[in-house]
Amino acid sequence: MNNTLPAVYYAHSCEDRPATDWHLLDEHLIAVSRLASNFANGFGAAEWAEFAGLWHDLGKYQPEFQRRLRGENIGVPHAWIGAVKALQADLHTGHLIAFPVLGHHGGIPDRANLRELVKSDNFVFPPDLDLPKSIMDHKLPTLPKPLVPTSKMSRADTESLSRKTEFWMRFVFSALVDADFLDTEAFFDTRASASRGSYRLISDLRENLDAYIEDLSSGLPSESRALPVNRARAKILLACRDAAQFRPGMFSLTVPTGGGKTLSAMSFALHHAEKHALERVIVVIPYTSIIEQNADVYRRAMGDSNVIEHHSNLDPNTSQNDDETSYRHRLAAENWDAPIIVTTTVQFFESLFSNKPSRCRKLHNIANSVIVLDEVQTLPPGFLYPICEALNELVENYGCTVVLSTATPPALRGRNNLPTGLKNVREIIDNPAELGKNLERVKYSWPRGSDPLAWPDLGGEIAKHKQILSIVHRRADARILAEEASKQVSDESVFHLSALMCPAHRREVIREVTRRLRENEPCRLVSTQLVEAGVDLDFPIVYRALGGLDSMVQAAGRCNREGKRNIGKVKIFRAPTPPPQGVLTAATEVTWNMLIERDNTLDITDPTIFEEYFRRLYFTRNLDSKNIQRERAQFNFETVASLFRLIEDDFTSTVIIPYNDAAVSALNDVRLNGISRDRMRKLQLFTVSIYPNMVSKFRACGALEQIFDDCSHIFTLTKPYRHLYDDRYGLSIGDDIHADPKALIV
């Protein structure tokens, strides 16, 4: 495309026809075209995004739209006209623009929508549009070479090329909608426009992080620095900085739990981004609790304004009432233009496969980034085909480096039963097996036989030890086991953690547990798996219900974590109840079969054992359970978005707990002043998620009150039912749901 076209178009619109009410639209198209071209990433995308910017609002030149602008209450669909223009320009390649243009307000549609448009009476470009001639006189760019089909392609090759094209269109779409948003914002919302950008350089952030890590290291007592675990952390950090010099690509950071991956991975990312002129670092984490913890570390090291924390808990439809820092954070969360993004696995991958403008705006800023996938073994097996293919595309064609950070490396490399598996993965640690041996801090005891331990017997086991952590699968199991332990030992020394406790409550328990461990006081903690997600505890003994091998290792990471004891003890037991159905059940069976075959012994320090474990686990699962790859090859964008849900819609609802005075104050603040990012963040400390069946049960008896009219999934406990939240066990979801008679008295 002629790079002077926008200037020619601008001159024509302003000089060759009289000034009309359309001049602002002329300028908007030119501005969006230029921005979209600058934003577009990937092979040949800039030229196509430029055309998409010029044509996306052609329908607004309709006389009816002018009448609407003058106040008539009429609906005037307009996106279809730009799509018609693209398809008429070239019926074979015009869809590359038609899809993004047709979806730039409501979302990219399925292929059937384009077919219906071509067959409809509307497939005629309106003759009465007051358009500059120059916009009609240019042909579409040539098809980018990587998207050109070759002769004698197999069916699989043809489908693969279609998915590559589909992925490429997403980045054209992202460039278009972000450009459209930003140019419109510059006209209507000067505060937002002025508040964007102005971040520190990657080189500055790298220097800040290096200084922060050096301060942490120098602040350790000499005896702590001499511990094997701290010596190993220093070697891991050095290996990450050395590997950062390698060319961009796919990397694996295999480090045992407690090895310092949080800071070492970020150090690699910033050194690598500085070396290769990459634009940002995106840290993708499976659990919100880890996100908040890691983001706090990054903010301390690199400054609050440069680190954007983006997940569903901080993604409300907020207003301009936030303070300036929070306001800038919210703006940056819209399109990820900040240097450091910390987000969830759900937010990252669902955005990659979304069709909505609001979620896709950020995609073009994912290009040319370092993407750190923390705890990569938690990627859901049912989505591995599309996920792995997307990661390969990001590395091969969008300038990304991907880091697979884990203690238990999953089997994600390409092979016969994983044809879209990851390619050319480079290990950052030269010898992960040797590192595992050097960081071995626990001895495992595996169950012999299939008979479970009864809850009273497990309670007795817990009572025998002064300090012990026991981890079970289910929330109900955690309460039962804590109650059993309390019957046999001082109740004050038994603690409980589960997701039925709000975060503020859990933090109080963790603080007290940490204090008791430090002061060598009696401390017996019963928890669900949530304690395995980045909670920094250091017990001498850990009991863990038999589950997936990766989960066993995460549990062991809470045992002898700092290596201050000669050896910690991890006992794996069979619980009286099975793990939840699905992946957790399959993972438990795979672990048990491997134990039987190896005479009840597994060498957890050997990374190859995880390769075998995950291969077996993936063999039991459909790695594209929703047939997303088939829909992608058919350009069914809307269908793909509806299917790619790592967490199903309406899976849980949120109950805000009036846990303490701070919770009540935060709740009253939102009721009085409305939703804002700051207020929602404060409320997040007092939330519990429950399943739909419990929502129905609670609402039927009047125990829940909906807080916001436009948020049907956010509730709080009504006053007569606040006693359902227990100071020790959290929210009671049993059958005994009754009002407190005292609370009914006015």
Shape: globular
Query: How many helix segments?
Result: 32
Can you identify the CATH class of the largest domain?
Alpha Beta
User: How large is the share of residues in beta strands?
Assistant: 5-15%
CATH superfamily of the largest domain, please? Answer: P-loop containing nucleotide triphosphate hydrolases
Query: Helical residue percent?
Result: 40-55%
Poorly predicted segments: 1-20, 316-320
Q: Roughly how many Å is the radius of gyration?
A: 28 Å
In spatial order, strands of the major sheet run 3-4-2-5-6-1-7
Number of strands: 19
Supply the helix-strand structural class: alpha/beta
Can you put this structure into words, describing what you see?
This protein is α/β, with parallel strands linked by helices. The protein folds into four domains: 5-188, no CATH class; 202-437, P-loop containing nucleotide triphosphate hydrolases (Rossmann fold, 3-Layer(aba) Sandwich), CATH 3.40.50; 441-604, P-loop containing nucleotide triphosphate hydrolases (Rossmann fold), CATH 3.40.50.300; 653-744, no CATH class. The protein is built from 32 helices and 19 strands. A seven-stranded parallel sheet has the order 3-4-2-5-6-1-7, sandwiched between helices. Strands 8-13-12-9-11-10 form a six-stranded parallel sheet. A hairpin with a 3-residue loop joins β18 and β19 (730-731). α2 (23-39) packs antiparallel against α3, α10 (202-218) runs antiparallel to α13 (261-276) and α12 runs parallel beside α13. It is globular.
